[in-house]
Amino acid sequence: MFKKILIANRxxxxxxxxxACKEMSIKSVAVYSEADKTSPHTKYADExxxxxxxxxxxxxxxxxxxxxxxxxxxxxxxxxxxxFFSENAAFIKEVELSGITFIGPSSSSVMMMGxxxxxxxxxQKNNVSIVPGTTSPxxxxxxxxxxxxxxxxxxxxKAAAGGGGKGMKxxxxxxxxxxxxxxxxxxxxxxxxxxxxxxxxYIEDPRHIEVxxxxxxxxxxxxxxxxxCSIQRRHQKIIEEAxxxxxxxxxxxxxxxxxxxxxxxxxxxxxGTIEFLMDRNSDFYFLExxxxxxxEHPVTEMxxxxxxxxxxxxxAAGNKLSFNQDDLKINGHSFEARIYAEDPxxxxxxxxxxxxxxxxxSGPGIRVDAGFSRGSLISLYxxxxxxxxxxxxxxxxxxxxxxxxxxxxxxIAGVTTNISLLKEICNNENFRKGKFDIxxxxxxxxxxxxxxxxxxxxxxxxxxxxxxxLKSRSTASEVKNIISDNNNWGRLRYE
Length: 495
Ligand code: ADP
Known about the structure:
Elements (H helix, E strand, L loop, with lengths): L3 E4 L3 H13 L3 E7 L6 H5 L2 E6 L10 H10 L4 E3 L9 H10 L2 E2 L4 H8 L1 H10 L15 H11 L3 E5 L8 E4 L2 H19 L4 E5 L5 E9 L5 E13 L2 E7 L6 H17 L4 E9 L5 E7 L6 H8 L3 H9 L16 E8 L1 E2 L5 E2 L2 E2 L2 E3 L6 E5 L6 E2 L6 E9 L2 H14 L1 E3 L5 H8 L2 H5 L6 H5 L12 H16 L3 H9 L1 H5 L5
Parallel strand pairs: 1-2, 1-4, 2-3, 4-5
Antiparallel strand pairs: 6-7, 6-8, 9-10, 9-12, 10-11, 11-14, 12-13, 14-21, 15-16, 17-20, 18-22, 19-21
C-alpha cells in the first residue's frame, strides 16, 4: 500500500481524499495557492506546500511543479480529485513516466475517452448506443447543413473537447445553423483550445442517468448502480439522487451492462462514470464517460455503503476490487444538493466574500462535504461550489424530508448562495413525485429562480470583475490575474 499520497486539488474534494488517507494510515500531502493559504485542506493534511499564485494556471494547473513536488516529498501516488488534472492525459502520462502512481485510469483510457467524438466512435464499435449524430468533427458549414437536415432539427452543436456544460449550441432551425456554427467554433476554441465541433440530435426532454463503474488492474469490473442527474441549470447538475426513481430493474440491468461494456472498450480501471440520456421510453444513449471520481459520488456511497475513494486507492495500488457484483445491493435512497456561492435573484452571478457564518447541518442521514469553514474566503478564482449536502433515507420520501430539513439548518452569511432555489426545488410537487427531465428548472422556474439563461459569459465575467473590485478593492494586478486566468473565465463546473 502507498505510504504517502499527494492530493493535486483543493476544497471539499481535497478534504475528502485526506479523510480516506487518514483512515488507511497513509500520509497525505496538500498543495495550495495564494488564495487557499488558510483553507481547511491545508490544515488537515499531514503536510502542505505552497505551489503558486491564485490563478489555477499558476498553481493547481502547474504540471511540472506538482510532479516535482511529489518526487521531492517522497509521495508514491497522486490523487487528482475532479477537475484540474483529473482528465488530462498528458499530465497522467508524465506521472506514469515519473514512476509515481496516478490514482485513476491509465493515460491511454483517458485519451480514448477525452474527445467526445473519439469516444462516440469507440462506443459505436462496441455496440453501445450513442445519441444520433456525427462521430467525427464537422469540417464546414456546408457539410454541417447536410448532416443537420438529415438528422432533423432541433440539433445540438457540441465542442468535441467540451465539458462542464460549456460549448453546446441548440439549433432549432436551418436558418440558425450558419451563425451558430461559427460562434460554436469560436467558443470551443476559447474554452477548450480546440475548435472542433460535431452534431448531435437534440433529444427532447430526456433524463440524465449515469452509471458508476469500477474496474481493477486485473480485468474485473462492477457497476455501483445509477445516479439520476436531471436537475440541472444551464446543463450543470445541482441536485443528484441514487437510485433513479424512473429506472426499473429491467432498465437497470440493461444500462449497467452497457456501462460495463463502455468501460471494457477502453481498457478502463479505477472509478469512472458513464453518462447517458434516457428518453420517455427508457431507451438510453451514451453521452460521455467521465474518467475520474464524480462530484456526486456521495449518493452512491450512501446507498451502497462503500467508500469510493478508499477503493480508488486500493485499486491504484494494484489490489483486486475488494467486492464483487453480488456483494452490492441498493440500500435506501440518497440525494445530493450542491450549495453554490451565487445569487439566484440576480441572474446567478457568482458571489464572493468572507464566510462570516458557516453552520452546517447534521443529524440522522445527513452528510456534508465542505471545503470551507467560518472565516474562509470565497474567491473568484475557482469553481463556486461551497459544499455538498447529502441526505440518506430508507426510501425516497424520507431522504427528501431529510434534505429539506438539512437545507433549513444550513446557515451561511457573507456570501449569497443558491439555497433558496434548492428549497424551492425540494418543495416542488413534480420533483417530489419524480416527474421531471433535464428541462425541469427551465419549465418550473421560468423567469423566476431560473435567472437569466441568456447572460453571455462576457457579461457574467464583466459583472464578476466589477463586483470584486467594489467589494474587495482588488489591486490592478489581481484583476489582471482574474481576467487572464482562462479557467476562471469559464468558471467550469464539474460533473
Ligand atoms: P458536458 O461534458 O459539458 O457536461 P454533456 O455532453 O455531458 O456535456 O451534456 C451535459 C448536459 O447537456 C446533459 O446532461 C443534458 O442535460 C444536455 N445534453 C447534452 N447532449 C444532449 C442532447 N443530445 N440532447 C439533449 N440534451 C443534451
